[in-house]
Design a protein that fits this description.
The protein is 75% helix and 6% strand. The protein contains 27 helices and 7 strands. The longest helix has 58 residues. By secondary structure, it is an alpha+beta fold. The chain starts with a helix and ends with a helix. A 5-stranded mixed sheet has the order 2-4-5-7-6. A two-stranded antiparallel ribbon has the order 1-3. Strand 6 and strand 7 form a beta hairpin.
Amino acid sequence: MTSSRLSKLCILLFGILVLSTLKANSQQETKDSLHTLIKDLRKTPNFSNKDTTYINLLNDLAYELRYYNSDSLLLLSNLALDYSRSLHYKKGENHALVEIGIYYSDKGNHSKSISYFENALAMSKSRKDVDLTLRAQNNLASQFSYIGNYAKSLIYYLEGIDIANENEKKFMQSVINENVANLYASQKDYTQALEFYKKVKKINEDIGNEICSAETMSNIASIYADMGELEYAMFNANASIAIFEKNKKMEWLAYAYAIKGKTYLKDNKYKWALYWYRQSEMLHEKIQDPRGKIELLNGMSQAYLGLEKDDMSEKYALEAYDISNSIKDMEGSQQCAKTLYKINKNKENFTQALKYHEIFQSLSDTLSRNENKKSLTMLKTKMEHEKQKADLIEENEKQLDMQRAYVNVALGILLIFIVVTLLVGRSEKIQKNLNLELQKKTEDLEQSKLELHEINGTKDKLFSIIGHDLRGPIAAFQGLLKLFKNGEIEQNEFMSFMPKLSHDIDHISFTLNNLLTWGQTQMNGAVTRPEVVALETVVRDNIDLLSEIAKNKSIRLVNHLEPKTLTWSDGNQIDIVIRNLISNALKFTPENGMVTINAIEKKNQWQVSIRDTGIGMNKETIDKIFSHNSTLTTYGTNNEKGTGLGLSLCKEMIEKNNGTIWVESLLRKGSTFHFTLPRAKNKYQKTA
C-alpha cells in the first residue's frame, strides 16, 4: 500500500469511528464490526492489502456507508477496485464497480453511474454471479428511470425479475417488483402499482423478514396518500415506523416519518405534518439521502405555507430546489418551483413569482410529455419483452415437436387417468385395503405352498426310509417269531438267530433315532442350546455303545482325545454327530481294520477327526454325501444298511453349532471326516 493511500485509509477509518457516535445502535454495530475486522486484519504479521478478505471488508464497509458518508463510500470502493485489479480478483472488482455506480447515482452523475453499472453487469454475467447480476440489473434499471428512459428501465427490471425467479432469489424478487410498482406510481397509475405491490407482499410473506415487509408498507403508504386514501396511508405508515424503530433502520425510518408527514399534509393538518417532517429532518442530519431529502424539504415548505409562515416556507423550498437541480431531479424541481411560485405570489414579489411559474410550467410540459410517453413506452416495452419470450418459446417448440407430441399423448393419458380416478375416488380406500389383504393372503398362500412342499418331501423321504430300511428287518423279526410261535423251529435254533436279531434291533433303534432327530429339524426346527461339552466323554460313551459292532468285525476303536477337550455346543446334537460318524466308519471298514478319533486345538476351535481304514469314496460320492436332499444309501463291508440321512443330519447339526464339516477320502485307503466346534472359553466354563 502506498503512503498516500495508507494515509487516506487511516483518516477515513478515524472519520468513521468519530461518525459512529451519531448513528443508531443496530446499524452502527455492523459498521463498527467491519471497522474492527479491518483494523485487526491490518495488525496481522503478514498483512497485505492484496488479501481478498481485506478487499471484501472494504466493499462491505463501503456498502454500509451509503447513507452516512458517501465520500468514504467512494474512497473505500476505489481502493477495493485497485487492489482487486492488481490481484485479478474479479469478485472484488465486480462488487466495487456496483458501489461506485451507486455513489455517482446519488450525486446525480447519471452517465458515469450507468457506465459503472453496465460494466458491473457484464462482469457479473460472465462470472455467473447471480447476486451481483441482480444488484447491477436493479440499479441500472433505477438509473434509467431517473433520466426518463422508462423503456430501458422496465426492460432491465423485467429481465431482473426473470433472473430472480429462475434462481429463486426471493429478496431480489421483492425489491425489483417493488421498483416496478414505484415506476407505475410515478406516472400515477396507482391501480397497476398496487397490483405489483400485492405480488411483493406475497413474496415478503415467503421471506419472513419484517424489515422487507416494513419497507413495502412505507411505499404503499405513500401511494395511498397520493390517492387520498389517508386512513390506509396512516395505517401502513404507522406499521412500518414501529418496525423501523425497533430495528434502528435509520434511512427507512426517516422516509417513513416523511410519509406520515405527507399524509397529515394531505389532510391539511399542518402542525402534525410539520411535527413528523421534523422527526425525519433530524434523522436526515445523520444520513445522506438527497432524493429523500428533496421530498422532505418540499413537504416542510408546504406545511409552513399552510401555517402562513412564508419565510420558513421559502427557506425550505429553496434548499429543496437547489438539491433537485444539483442531482438533476426534474420532478423535485417542478414541485419546488410550484411551491416557490405560491410563496412569492403571497409576498407580492410578482417578478420572482412569474419566474418560478415559468420554470414550473416548462418542467410540467416536459414531464407531461414524458408522462404521456411513459405509459405507452412501458406498455410497449412490456409487450416487446413478452413477445421476445414468446418468440423463444416458439423457437423451442419448433425444435421439440416430437417431444411435444409425446407430452400431449402423456397429457391425454393423464387426463383420462384423472377422470377415472375421480370416478373411483370414493372406493379407492376400500380397493386399496382389499388389494393389501389379497396381497397378504397371496403371500401367505405361497409360503404355505412352500412349507407343504417341504413337508411332503419330508414325508416321502420318511416313508421311503421306513419302507426300505425298517420294514425289512421288522418283517424278518416278525417272521422268525411266527415260526417259533408255530413250533416250526426249535428253541435252540431260535436262539442261534439271537445275535442277528440283536444287530437288527440295534440298527432299527439307531435308524429310528436318526429319523426322529432329522424329522424334528425338518418339520419343527431343532433348537440349539449350547453349553460346555466334554468331547472326550461323548466319544467314550459312543465307543462303549458301538463296541459290540466293532468287536463283531474285529475293528479297533482308538480314542486319542485328551481330558478337558471342552467345546461350547449342544451336547445332544454333537452326540448324534459323533455316533453317526463312528457308525459310518465301522460300517465301511472291513474286518481287522481300525477307526481312530483325534482332536487338535486351532485358535478358538477344536478340530475333531474320525479316520477309518475302510473302502474310501470317489469324488462323485464325496460331492453327494452332505447334500440336504440326498438319500444316498450304501451297504457296508458286511452288507450293513444305512438311512441315507446320517451325513446330511451331521452337517446340519455342526453348522447349527457354528462349525464346519468336510471329508478327505481315497478309494481303498479309507476316509477321514473332520469337523470343527467352538472351544469353550473360561467364562463359559465358569457358567457351566
